[in-house]
Design goal:
The chain is of the alpha/beta class. It has a single domain (25-407), classed as TIM Barrel, CATH 3.20.20.70. 45% of the residues lie in helices and 12% in strands. α14 links the parallel β8 and β9. It is globular. It binds flavin mononucleotide.
């Protein structure tokens, strides 16, 4: 070996590192997922097309969905330097309770189509992180099963059925199962037109036709998991008419089961049925936020249902500052929709939000890697928030204020 060959080998040795081979396929998959978009792509590969589009899609031209996340780009940090950031505390107070970070998991109906564990998996992951999980009225695991599976903080999302007795009964069950608050969803008088579902003739539960069979064969891991999971129903109304055992389109279901006559008086009725905090989910104007505090709700979730209802509705993040200024400390303000990074949480809090809430991000995690995918998503947001706080010179959530950001 001459001198230059020896030099080459020495250089090679100095840089080469053989990584130990990761044998667990889920770990391998998650290690490579750098952000939510990566998880979305994995979920897209693993889920049948109809299922993925049901989760990923939104109303009409999907303009509002795009703005929900796009509007975060208009916010710029004004980072401060040389502040000791060796100790960062992410904890926040939401509805009077301290939680480890200002992040909540939004209710999503029919979660079992992403993974057979469905709501149980998501609630367990939220519980491990100590953050509140919102269980949908249209869940595929019952109020009680979710409470038994996950001891963490839980909220119950209410759709108002035409049958008032049914709503009262569900609230009673949620109280007995220790749900801490309810989210009254007010943006779904009728179902938004989700055109991806129209094109695919998508129903819940998915109808088995030739196209679904082909889709199932192309996605064997999902199909096996789905078939092993047992019959899929709206568990909170199991055994009743319209419990989802037969395939229906979601818009038909909502049209026949839910009332279109919901009004401010119903919020007062709900108050008579529920003595814990109420969050109005789907507030989209300053005027309605003002009325919400006037009727005495404890929380306002600025939300357009992830762009799945009225296309052309404003993004939640664009409403945070005017609404927070209007309501001051009379109610907590939650920014629900389009949150895709820890830095988005910091931006929302800087503009006046008490917390943010995420829907699709955890469903992508669930579809990509089951329960561990949801853990991964929560940790992605936690570490992203911590890093963004360190890089912008804030140590506690209380320290975050309007001076931290400007609008481009
Ligand atoms: C697949 C799916 C199902 C949903 N189901 C419900 C529901 O049953 N009740 C409800 O109040 N909101 C529901 N939402 C809306 C979410 O609670 C939340 O407002 C929205 O996902 C937030 O936007 P993001 O997905 O951009 O985070 C659903 C959203 C998705 C994506």
């Amino acid at each position: 070996m001459n001198f230059s060959e020896a030099k080459m080998i020495e250089t090679f040795r100095s840089v080469v590192r053989f990584k130990s081979i990761e044998t667990d396929s889920v770990t391998r998959r998650l290690d490579r997922a750098a952000d939510i978009e990566d998880l979305r792509k994995i979920a897209k590969r693993r889920l049948p097309r109809g299922v993925f589009d049901y989760i990923d899609g939104a109303a009409e031209d999907e303009v509002t969905m795009a703005r929900n996340s796009g509007d975060f780009d208009r916010i710029e940090f004004k980072p401060r330097i040389l502040r000791d950031v060796s100790n960062i505390d992410l904890s926040a107070t939401v509805l009077g309770k301290k939680i480890p970070m200002p992040l909540l998991l939004s209710p999503t109906g029919f979660t079992r189509i992403a993974d057979s564990q469905g709501e149980l998996a998501v609630a367990r992951a939220a519980g491990r992180a100590g953050i509140p999980y919102g269980l949908s009225t249209l869940s595929t695991r019952s109020i009680e099963d979710v409470a038994d599976a996950a001891p963490g903080p839980k909220w119950f999302q209410v759709y108002t059925w035409k049958d008032r007795g049914l709503v009262s009964e569900m609230l009673q069950r949620a109280r007995e199962a220790d749900y801490e608050a309810i989210l009254l969803t007010v943006d779904t008088a009728v179902l938004g037109r989700r055109e991806r579902d129209v094109r695919r003739g998508y129903t819940l539960p998915p109808k088995i036709g030739l196209d679904t069979i082909i889709d199932g064969v192309i996605h064997p891991a999902w199909t096996l998991d789905f078939l092993r999971g047992g019959a899929i129903t709206f568990s909170n109304v199991a055994g009743r008419d319209g419990d989802g055992t037969s395939a229906v389109s979601l818009s038909d279901y909502i049209g026949t089961q839910f009332t279109q006559a919901l009004s401010w008086e119903d919020v007062e009725w709900l108050r008579s049925q529920w003595d814990r905090p109420i969050v109005l989910k789907g507030v989209q104007t300053v005027a309605d936020a003002k009325q919400a505090v006037a009727v005495g709700v404890e929380g306002i979730a600025l939300s357009n249902h992830g762009g799945r209802q009225l296309d052309g509705a404003p993004s939640p993040i664009s409403l945070v500052e005017p609404v927070a200024q209007e309501v001051q400390d009379q109610a907590d303000v939650i920014c629900d929709g389009g949150v895709r990074r820890g830095s988005d949480i910091l931006k929302a809090v800087a503009l006046g939000a008490t917390a943010v809430s995420i829907g699709r991000p955890y469903l992508y995690g669930l579809g990509a890697a089951g329960e561990r995918g949801v853990d991964h998503v929560i940790e992605f947001f936690r570490s992203g928030l911590e890093r963004s706080m360190a890089l912008s010179g804030v140590r506690t959530i209380d320290e975050v204020n309007r001076d931290l950001v400007s609008l481009r």
